[in-house]
Amino acid sequence: MLGKIESSEAAAAACNMLCARGTYITCCNRPGEALYGCACKCAPPGGKDCVVHYADGSTSKC
What we know:
Number of helices: 1
Mean pLDDT: 82
Largest sheet: 3 strands, antiparallel
Protein name: Os03g0733900 protein
Strand order of the largest sheet: 1-2-3
Organism: Oryza sativa subsp. japonica
Order of helices and strands: HEEE
Distance between the termini: 25 Å
């Protein structure tokens, strides 16, 4: 259990770091919202079909 706590703390720390300007996340069940985050692990809990949109125009499906 300890390893799981440490990894979730590391994920939270990574999601709180400053993202490159223009990077955001969208999710199908949150229409019209550009959510803060730089990686799939930063997608909101319960987010469906989320995509990370990077500043260079590329994307990554979560």
